[in-house]
Structure formats: structure tokens, C-alpha cells
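User: quick one
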Amino acid sequence: MKVKFLAPILTFTAIALVMLYALFYLDPTEIPSELIDKKAPEFSLSAVPGFGDDLSSAHLQDGKITLLNVFASWCVACLAEHPVLMDLSRNGQVEIYGLNYKDTPTAAAEWLAKHGNPYTRTGMDLKGRVGIDFGVYGVPETFIMGPDGTILDKIIGPITDKDLKEKILPRLAQRQG
Amino acid sequence: MSWIKWKAGAWQISLVFALVFFWNMQAKAVFVEERLDDPRLEERARNLAEGIRCLVCQNQSIMDSNADLAKDLRSIVRERISAGDSDEEVRQFLVSRYGDWVLLNPPFRLRTIMLWVFPFVALVLGGVFVVRFLRSRQNPTAENANLAPLSPEEEAELEKMLGSGKDGGRK
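Assistant: Done. Structure below.
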């Protein structure tokens, strides 16, 4: 008798818990990346005029961990993560490559001149095709590339402190140690 | 007088019809930027695009969305199709980049088995529940069966009440 009385309450509690979890811990806008642990797609792009050297897939596999950051001058969130990238490059912790997604050369050059250039190499993906090969669906996205050109991890949206501490720095430390 | 009223009504009705009709046309209109010359290929491309999720807007197909990425994906679908890919190959092309997520129809996998099977399980469970519920209501004696039988004193009491009731009725 008592169990019968509790059944609806227990059912409701279970549903509520699942929903609470989904509400606070799951982000429906984050799509699991298909490309993690896979080789980066082939590409070869010319640099934003005046900012770094050209970028191709060969540069992502020269024996060290690199960051491939997808950015655009029209992207507001990129500005938010920009200081993080600037810090990383200033400290010389990691080489950062910039994939300039669906931008114009002049706008990209102006943006980099204004806000600073954290990238050693840049590539202009004018039509966004390389981005699509990488499974990019929004800007910014940051790929952590292994020494052999495999994609180790992917950060969707601006790099937060948490991403930096949990995803990027441990990998760099591992590499040095 | 009444024919004037009727005329106005007809005019309004035809306006509504025209609106509904054009509304429909608009809903079916495709973004004009790209189109394949071969109408059969174009048809295939559109059917395919209807089943591809726009990753930015999530619950729209790339056919319905005017997001930039949807536009790019549409042109990729058309490109692949005119290059001679089969529908499955085009889907595979997109899945290898964006995962099963791009398909609006989730494929039947171990991970999605709950998704596909649960509705049927729920239907069966619900059916069993309903049948049991209805049966229990049909013969209420079933509920009385687990009550304790009357004790001899109660029996006597009941007999007395029934007996006196009968007598009272006859008087």
C-alpha cells in the first residue's frame, strides 16, 4: 500500500533529477566532434597578408603539440578569447596557428593589426571549405593538435579559464615532462 | 442588398485563398542562390538536404535554414551530387565531418537503440497497464476477496439486521 502511494512521487523525482542534470550539465549546442583522434584533413592556405607564414596540413604534424584556432574578424566571441591566445603566445608555451574562417584579407589584417597577432602561421579559408572539413560549425573553435597531426581535442566557443586549465595546459605539461 | 454583402464575402474569401496559396508557395520556395541544371539531380539534392541538420540552428534542416553554414552545406550537397555521388556517399561525407548529429533521422546504432525501441516498449507496458486496470474494474469482487471473512458475531448481527428489515417491510 505504501509503495503504491510513493510510486508517483518517486517517478516524478527521477524525472526531475534527470531534467535538472540536463539543464545544468549538458549543453545542447555542443556537438560531439567526429574528428577527435583522427588525422587532420589535408589543406593548404595562404596567410593573411602580412601576418605569419602560410599554413597547410603539413605544419600541423611537425612533432609538437600545436593549437589551431579558428577565428574571424566578424566574430565577437573571438575577441573575448583573444587575450588568452595572446598570453599563450607571449609565454612561448605553444605555437598557435590561425585559421581565418570566411573573412576578407583586409578585414582580417586590420583585426590582427588592431588586437595583436598571436599566430605564427595563418591561413585564409575564404570559402569556409577547410572549416567544413574540420567540422567547424561556429567561430571560434580551437583544435589541439598532436605531434603527428591528429586532433587530440576540440574547444567549441571561446577558450575559458577552465578549458585552458583542463584541456590545454595539461597536454602541454605532459609533452614537456 | 444581400448580393452586395455576398460579393464582399466572396472577395474576402478569395483574398484569403490567395494569401494561403502564396504563403504556401513561399514556404516551398528555395533559396535561389544555387541550383543544379538537371531538375532530377536538383530534386535529389533537395530531398537529401531536407534530412541534413543545420548545425547552427539545430532543429532546422539545411534546406529550411538561411544560416551561412547551411548555405555552404547545401552547396556541398549539390556539388557532391553533380560529381556523381550516391545519396549515401553524400551523407557519409557529412557524417565523417560532423558525426551522426547532422542526420535529422538518427541511424539505428547501439547508442540510439533506446531511442528507437523505447516507444514500442512504452506502448506494450502501457497496454498491459490499461488492460490490467480495466480488468480490475470489471469484477470488483476481486478487491473484496482479500477482506477478512465475517466473524460469527458479525454474521449474527447481519442476520438480525436483514431479518428485522424484512419483517419491517412486511408489516
